[in-house]
Specification:
The complex is a heterodimer of chains A (about 190) and B (about 160). By secondary structure, chain A is an all-alpha fold. The radius of gyration of chain B is 19 Å and the shape is globular. The chains are: A mainly alpha (about 190), B mainly alpha (about 160). Chain B: Keywords: Membrane, Transmembrane, Transmembrane helix.
Chain lengths: ~190, ~160
């Protein structure tokens, strides 16, 4: 039984489970599914700096911080009790491309060859972690949501601005992965 | 940006004249249910490899259906759920009417969306997976998370000057 759960879960199991988060949060407490707003609540609670955008009663949004703390714990549970013993399988074409950048380790979900503490002090590492993270935080708030708030919650509620946001996410991602990232990884 | 354009969807603190929140006051332990949902969600994230940098690269190179299947089926399940909640006027466990917050269009969804897309393909993670990745022991992702918090903070600082 446990062996069954240790395999990577197929999309048709995981996708519906992720989708069920939408009604679960609504029914349990009238909460709209969204994750990137947690970053804002962290700003509001720790460094509001008199910025109007961070002056609100963040304590009312504590549920969101508890939720993302749960995601962190869930990651730890999955890796400690349900870890996949085999290396990650990826499309051979991608493996071939990544080998050209020196990425050969498939033991972790993060490419530890390029994303690690030592590489933080290289230009490539700064691009992958610091600049990438900044774009995620800045872009999601500018867009008013991320994959969860717009692509899943927004589309579930048939909000066309969320469709525009989702299309923009994908356009940005395609541009980066195909046109820019290869140059960053080649550094 | 026109001063009256509200681009704030998460909290009703900004630009809201009348905030008539009828929400019940809950003790802290009511938040435990969100912790449980978060843990389950985090497990699904890791086991389905949504938090895998490699899966995101495959998605943006059209080399695998996996991520499209996950997002697509999640949206379909979400849509059916929202439709059922509206149709049968399903209440919360506390008996409150479930509220939906319409999203208004503004140009931030395009500009911000593109910027987030760029970051998503670099880090291989949207905000949720960042937390899960740290949970899996990738401690260096704490740096990415701090940087994302900094990005959110800088957006807040520049918000009035950015086109919306």
């Amino acid at each position: 039984m446990i062996e069954f759960f240790k395999q990577p879960w197929p999309w048709y199991i995981a996708g519906p489970l992720i989708g069920l988060t939408v009604p679960a949060l609504l029914i349990l407490g009238n909460k709209s599914f969204g994750i990137s707003s947690s970053l804002r609540h962290i700003c509001a609670s720790c460094f509001p700096a008199n910025i109007p955008f961070f002056k609100y009663d963040w304590k009312k949004e504590v549920w969101n911080l508890v939720f993302v703390f749960g995601i962190f714990l869930g990651g730890a549970v999955a890796i400690n009790f349900l870890a996949n013993p085999n290396p990650i399988e990826i499309n051979p074409k991608l493996a071939n491309e990544l080998a050209g950048y020196g990425i050969n380790n498939y033991d972790h979900l993060v490419p530890t060859d390029v994303i690690n503490w030592a590489s933080l002090f290289t230009f490539r590492g700064v691009m992958l972690m610091v600049v990438g993270g900044f774009l995620v935080g800045f872009g999601t708030r500018y867009a008013g949501g991320c994959t969860s708030g717009h692509a899943i919650m927004g589309l579930s509620n048939l909000q066309w601005p969320s469709l525009i946001a989702t299309i923009s996410f994908m356009v940005g991602g395609f541009m980066m992965a195909n046109l820019i990232l290869p140059h960053i990884l080649s550094l | 940006m026109e001063p009256n354009t509200n681009t704030d969807f998460e909290v009703r603190s900004l630009d809201a004249i009348c905030v008539n929140e009828s929400h019940l006051e809950h003790q802290w332990y009511h938040n435990i249910k969100y912790l449980v949902i978060g843990v389950l969600f985090g497990v699904v994230f890791v086991k389905s490899e949504v938090v895998s940098w490699f899966r995101i690269q495959e998605m943006f190179r059209l080399q695998s259906f996996h991520m499209y299947g996950i997002i697509g089926s999640a949206v379909i399940v979400g849509m059916i759920s929202v439709w059922l909640i509206k149709k049968f006027n399903i209440k919360t466990i506390y008996g409150e009417t479930i509220e939906f917050h319409p999203k208004k269009f503004n140009k931030g969804q395009i500009y911000g969306g593109l910027l987030f897309g760029l970051g998503w393909a670099i880090t291989g993670a949207c905000p949720g997976p960042l937390f899960a990745q740290i949970g899996t022991g990738a401690t260096v992702i704490i740096v990415t998370l701090i940087s994302a918090i900094a990005g959110t903070w800088v957006y807040g600082l520049w918000r009035d000057k950015l086109p919306h």
